[in-house]
């Protein structure tokens, strides 16, 4: 009996050890690596979502990656005269991390993840439709990353092979020229345009993912950056004609800046960055590039920079007096001001009460008393951004949305950032038509479609005797009023060559005039009446941001760009492209 008991105990022990060995061989699904992940269609779908996650970091679009381009332009200035100052003045020494490092860091996160997806997708068995959707999204997001990297940092390493990260000699890549980077962007977008479904597919494709229309819109932007106007125009006309799905202007301009499913991913939006509606996410503010907390707020902090300090925000950035006066100079056909003014800047003109229940959303709910945050400021015209002064910015803030009772700083704003709208397609089509054929009625008609929405009188061809004159209207009237304080103005100034012509640079200085008197100055400022202009401090080459010095130190193959070297890009630009002269 004792021997039998011993034998049974030995069998139990062996069985237990065997069971333990079986358990040890099970893969922990919470501890997978890039070596054993991405081997199925479902895993690659998850990896694509992870790519989208990276475009919502602080250096991509959650704050500085969005606002740095606005402050680089002439519609916005650094009213706090602090954090953004070196980027407003275009003279960063290359040792400030918010612009020299964070944007670089976070967009290369996108490059890394999209390269991972593209390295895996060919080996996984799936339908052609699924393949096109997965690969097409990765290609679009990689092109989006390189578009912003190159328009911020000019000459950046072009890494398209995921295997490059496994070898220190290829991981530390050298600079590529801007043309080489843009060549790759064109290749990626051309594929994405063919592979991705249109927005008409519906479902989640119409609710925030990249579509063929998004790829086509960005392709037009890339081609126009390189002055390939004929190629860009053909794509823009295809978008207008419905080849990539149905797009149209919203009846209410304000619907492009509201939060909530009735307004976001609307008929005008070619591509927008998705953020959770205010209060629906968690409480963790993930400012680091980790961004993996299940309790993350999943919002952005653009409002923290745009809204007034008086209302609890940081108030770093303000609209320029030049932009304000653009709106004041022209009235709608019913005699009131262009309603885009109220969505762009926080101001309450004498006529403001006449907008009740109109499609301008100057009053969030048709009642001026309903805006609990701004109701005490309605008599202030306009609202000052901080103690230094400046006009508080309304776009992508609670100023007209009236979602919450008090501004909360940080990553809480849930208004999706509309990165490309159909109005941009129309105004770019007008610009291409003008570049190719000179001022024509076709170009005027494209512009008038955008003006009709806000009841502005039609432009007349007879008022524009030259292509230069119509370009001036597009560049310095129509585009600033439609897209004022949005991401993209700085990129426009680059592609137009405004930093490389003295007349244009003088014009930027005039647009950038501001006062530091603690008020929201609305007068048309001159060199004599202004306190300063951020463009007075511009260093040649600093229309691009320098590559962070620590990044240069860590990578022996990497060289500084024109901003690191204070190098004039004007001669090279003028050799390739035309710069249109100033027309008063």
The CATH C-level name of the domain at 41-250 is: Mainly Alpha
Query: How many angstroms does the end-to-end distance come to?
Result: 111 Å
Strand order of the largest sheet: 1-3
Radius of gyration from the alpha-carbon trace, in angstroms: 26 Å
CATH fold description of the domain at 41-250: Serine Threonine Protein Phosphatase 5, Tetratricopeptide repeat
List strands and helices in order, with pairings.
Layout: H1 2-24, H2 41-54, H3 58-62, H4 64-72, E1 76-77, H5 85-88, H6 97-100, H7 102-120, H8 128-153, H9 168-171, H10 178-195, H11 212-225, H12 229-240, E2 269-273, H13 302-306, E3 318-319, H14 321-328, H15 340-344, H16 398-401, E4 417-421, H17 422-437, H18 441-453, H19 467-483, H20 489-496, H21 502-511, E5 513-514, E6 532-533, H22 549-554, H23 562-565, H24 570-576
Antiparallel strand pairs: 1-3, 2-4, 5-6
Helix pairs in contact: 2-7, 2-8, 7-8, 8-10, 10-11, 11-12, 12-17, 17-18, 17-19
Supply database-style keywords.
mainly alpha, 44% helix, two-stranded antiparallel sheet, 584 residues, Serine Threonine Protein Phosphatase 5, Tetratricopeptide repeat
């Amino acid at each position: 009996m004792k021997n039998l008991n011993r034998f049974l105990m030995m069998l139990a022990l062996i069985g237990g050890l065997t069971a333990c060995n079986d358990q040890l061989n099970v893969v922990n699904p919470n501890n997978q690596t890039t070596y054993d992940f991405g081997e199925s269609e479902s895993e690659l779908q998850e990896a694509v979502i992870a790519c989208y996650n990276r475009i919502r970091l602080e250096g991509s679009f959650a704050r500085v990656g969005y606002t740095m381009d606005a402050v680089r332009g002439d519609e916005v200035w650094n009213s706090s005269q602090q954090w953004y100052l070196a980027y407003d003045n275009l003279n960063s020494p290359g040792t400030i991390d918010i612009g020299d490092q964070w944007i670089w860091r976070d967009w290369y996160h996108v490059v890394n993840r999209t390269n991972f997806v593209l390295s895996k997708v060919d080996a996984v068995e799936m339908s052609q439709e699924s393949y096109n959707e997965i690969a097409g999204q990765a290609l679009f997001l990689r092109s989006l990353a390189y578009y912003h990297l190159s328009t911020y940092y000019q000459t950046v390493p072009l890494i398209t092979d995921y295997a490059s990260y496994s070898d220190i000699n290829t991981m530390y890549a050298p600079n590529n020229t801007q043309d080489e980077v843009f060549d790759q962007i064109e290749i990626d977008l051309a594929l994405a345009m063919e592979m991705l479904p249109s927005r008409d597919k519906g479902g989640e494709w119409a609710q925030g993912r990249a579509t063929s229309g998004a790829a086509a819109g960005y392709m037009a932007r890339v081609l126009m950056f390189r002055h390939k106007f004929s190629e860009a125009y053909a794509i823009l006309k295809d978008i207008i004609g419905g080849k990539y799905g149905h797009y149209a202007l919203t009846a209410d301009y304000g619907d492009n800046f509201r939060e909530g499913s009735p307004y976001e991913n609307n008929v005008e939006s070619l591509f927008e960055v998705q953020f959770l509606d205010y209060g629906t996410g968690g409480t963790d503010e993930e400012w680091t590039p980790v961004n993996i907390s299940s309790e993350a707020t999943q919002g952005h902090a653009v409002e923290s920079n745009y809204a007034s300090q008086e209302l609890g925000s940081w108030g770093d950035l303000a609209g320029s007096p030049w932009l304000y006066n653009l709106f004041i100079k022209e009235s709608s056909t019913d005699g009131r001001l262009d309603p885009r003014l109220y969505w762009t800047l926080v101001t309450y003109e004498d006529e403001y009460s006449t907008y009740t229940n109109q499609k301008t959303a100057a009053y969030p709910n048709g009642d001026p008393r309903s805006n609990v945050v701004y109701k005490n400021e309605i008599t202030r015209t306009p609202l000052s951004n901080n103690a230094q002064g400046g006009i508080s910015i309304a776009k992508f803030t609670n100023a007209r949305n009236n979602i919450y009772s008090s501004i909360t700083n940080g990553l809480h704003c849930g208004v999706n950032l509309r990165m490309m709208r159909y109005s941009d397609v129309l105004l770019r089509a007008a610009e291409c038509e003008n570049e190719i054929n000179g001022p024509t009625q076709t170009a005027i008609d494209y512009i008038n479609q955008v003006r009709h929405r806000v009841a502005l009188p039609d432009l007349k061809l007879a008022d524009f005797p030259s292509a230069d004159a119509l370009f001036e209207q597009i560049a310095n009237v129509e585009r600033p009023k439609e897209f004022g304080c949005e991401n993209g103005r700085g990129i426009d100034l680059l592609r137009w060559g405004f930093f490389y012509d003295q007349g244009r640079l003088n014009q930027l200085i005039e647009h950038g005039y501001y006062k530091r008197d603690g008020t929201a100055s609305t007068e048309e400022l001159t060199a004599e009446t202004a306190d300063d202009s951020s463009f007075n401090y511009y260093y040649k080459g600093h229309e691009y941001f320098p590559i962070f010095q620590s990044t240069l130190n860590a990578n022996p193959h990497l060289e500084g760009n024109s901003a690191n070297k204070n190098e004039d890009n004007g001669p090279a630009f003028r050799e390739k492209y035309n710069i249109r002269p100033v027309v008063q």
